[in-house]
Amino acid sequence: MKNNLTIFLTFLILFGCASSPPKNPDNICKIFQEKRSWYKAAIRTEKRWKLPPYVLMSFVFQESSFQANARPEREQLLGFIPWFRPSSAKGYSQALTKTWDDYKDETGNGGADRNNFSDSADFIGWYASKGFYQGFERTDARSLYLAYHEGYGGFKKRTYRKKQWLIKVADRVQSRSEMYQKQYWGCAKDLKKKRFFIF
Predict the structure, then answer these.
(1) In a designed cystine with 21, which of 33, 66, 91, 92 is the match (CB 3.0 to 4.6 A)?
(2) Structural domain contains residue 182
(3) pLDDT in tens, 96-155
(4) What's residue 1's pLDDT?
(5) Range(s) of the domain holding residue 171
(6) DSSP code of 21?
(7) Residue 61 and residue 160: Cα distance in Å, rounded?
(8) Residues 179 and 25: beta-carbon distance below 8 Å
(9) CATH, residue 186
(10) Which H or E element spans position 191?
(11) How many helices and strands in the chain, by DSSP H and E?
């Protein structure tokens, strides 16, 4: 009985650590050193969808601050009564339910979960890849993020021009992507060397 309890408590501790945000979200090298499964997911996304890890991670930071259960705050009725959430966005990628369903149908990943980092990374790569076919640069995190938020149709119509707050957010995503890129170039070789020895 005691052994079962010990195993259960150990599982809970490990699970909590695995799903918690990284200790240093401002350094992509330290994030990947701490979260080896995230690094592997980022590499898989890059190979499948051609989205660089530093662009991917700048998206995840902006959308959820690396929190698996992130959701938009509920609106308040009469200023104090918790009401409906403004959208169906959820998880690391803050993907909307409809878009997430489109992703599952198109990729065949029917069991994908928005609270799963690997699935969310694959989703972001899938969505970004649609922009690459339209001429978006892989490192243009700003434009990719505006399209991620507004949809590619909205981006083409430049609907973001009426949303100065969104333009500022996209600028921050670009800045973080560039910061992550410089960091990543300094540790990519070491991360790759260790990839096959840590499970």
Answers:
(1) 66
(2) yes
(3) 999 999 999 999 999 999 999 999 999 999 999 999 989 999 999 999 999 999 999 999
(4) 52
(5) 24-194
(6) P
(7) 20
(8) no
(9) 1.10.530.10
(10) helix 164-194
(11) 8, 2
pLDDT digits (tens, 9 = 90+) for 9-68: 444 444 444 468 999 999 999 999 999 999 999 999 999 999 999 999 999 999 999 998
DSSP character string of 88-101: --BTTTTB-HHHHH
| Residue partners of 119: CB distance under 8 A and separation at least 6 | 109, 112, 113
- Token pair belonging to 97: 């339910």
Give the chain's domain count: 1
Collapsing DSSP states into helix, strand and coil, what is residue 198?
coil
Evaluate whether residue 14 is within a structural domain: no
- In single-letter form, the type of residue at position 85 comes to R
**Amino acid in the structure at residue 112:** A
Amino acid at residue number 8:
F
For residue 173 the two structure tokens come to: 């995503």
What's the chain's length in residues?
199
